[in-house]
Amino acid sequence: MRWRWSWPIANMVVCAACAGWAAEPPAPSPTTSDQVRRLLDNEYYKVNLNVRARIELADFESLESSQAYTIRTLLGVGSKPFHGLSGYAELQNVLAIDGDQYFDAVEEPTGQTPIADPDDTDLHQLFVRYQNPTLWGADATVGRQRMALDDHRFIGDVAWRQNEQVFDAVRASTSLGVEHLSLLYGYIDYVTRIFANQGPPALRNFRSDSHLLRIGYDAWPTARIAAFAYLLDFENSPGNSSNSYGLRVTGAQPLTAPWALSYAASYAAQTDAANNPVDYVAHYVAAEGGASYQGIGGVALGYELLGSDDGEARFVTPLSTAHKFNGWADAFLDNGGPNGLQDLYGSVTPQLPWGMKSGFIYHRFWSDEGSDSLGWELDAILQRAFGPYVTVLTKFAYFDGRTEPLPDRWRAWFEASFVF
């Protein structure tokens, strides 16, 4: 019997094939990476992982060199907001591969150059947060937390060091229903500093009874204004207890493309507070202006004054990210000592190919009291991101001192970090 092809059968075959083509393909099975991602970040919580491996080399003229090989790990988990309420917990571990290769600033002096990254395992953050944009932008956080205000000059987290600075604090902000307005109040009960509460008393954590007040208004891109009062009282460090009242203005002005200008200016007056044994008044001034050209890079010129009161006391910033200011060689972490500090600097930030970022900064230093020359410094940085999670960085600082207490010094860093 011969099989005969008929149009009805052909139509059925063609229509079935068309139906198969028109139907949506089955959803692909989730890959292992997708499953892991959903396990770490979903509608209920998110896991954060930050691993930073670093080599820091340092040498002071009068000391032996140091080599620190450290790995810092932050592991945290935070709940997603439920009716505006969320929580976060984070552990920190700093591991030194060979602690004998450097002086970590908290052990007994070894004759080596200090690198302030001691071994530590600690509860880094633990807080509850409430956010409600419809209630005058209410935002309140209670517990151990990071805190950084404006440019970190007065309140910062010292994120450059492997042990970051965190605060046991209450922080609340609101707009009071006024567009572009922000009001912030903070109370600090305890400060966990970068030395992991080890070493001599001057390096220990602060027992605090401090208040932070800040008012900001950012209606104009050419002039964002902030007024602040930072009232610091440290039971175990009375010499750092102070009241600072100040004003900061920042802005940017686009010019004919591709040019743009930016600036920042700050002023503050400071007096002794609480049980500070010195009666003083000191002033702070900072100003910086910059210009950038799209595709080429930018330049900036700046000046900072940390004033002195006749050589008896200087303007103090005990909660700042001090490494960010006055040179990366860390020659002036004490803000110049009783005679204060003046810092005139210029920077160049060329835009490089292959996604690399770079910067070069030159500083000249003088004391405030007496205007004595203190030396100069050259800093350089080069970094590149590889995808969304990995960044590599190299950084260098050389300080040439002009007075006996300020020896020549240099520092170099090589670092790789993974952030999820």
How would you characterize the overall build of this protein?
- This protein has helices at residues 7-22, 32-40, and strands at 45-60, 66-79, 85-96, 120-132, 138-145, 166-174, 181-192, 206-220, 223-232, 242-254, 259-272, 281-293, 297-306, 341-350, 356-366, 373-386, 390-401, 409-419.
- The chain has a domain at 43-118.
- 6% of the residues lie in helices and 52% in strands.
- The chain has an 18-stranded antiparallel β-barrel.
- The chain is built from 2 helices and 18 strands.
Provide the descriptors you would attach to this structure in a database record.
2 helices; globular; disordered N terminus; 420 residues
- Percentage of residues in strands: over 45%
Q: Rough shape?
A: globular
In total, the number of strands is 18
Low-confidence stretches: 1-23
Terminus-to-terminus distance: 70 Å
Give the ordered list of helices and strands. HHEEEEEEEEEEEEEEEEEE
Q: Could you say which structural class the secondary elements and strand pairing correspond to? A: mainly beta
Please tally the helical runs, counting DSSP H or I stretches of 4 or more residues: 2
Q: What is the helix content?
A: under 10%
Q: Give the C-alpha Rg.
A: 27 Å
Topology:
Blueprint lengths: L6 H16 L9 H9 L4 E16 L5 E14 L5 E12 L23 E13 L5 E8 L20 E9 L6 E12 L13 E15 L2 E10 L9 E13 L4 E14 L8 E13 L3 E10 L34 E10 L5 E11 L6 E14 L3 E12 L7 E11 L1
Antiparallel strand pairs: 1-2, 1-18, 2-3, 3-4, 4-5, 5-6, 6-7, 7-8, 8-9, 9-10, 10-11, 11-12, 12-13, 13-14, 14-15, 15-16, 16-17, 17-18
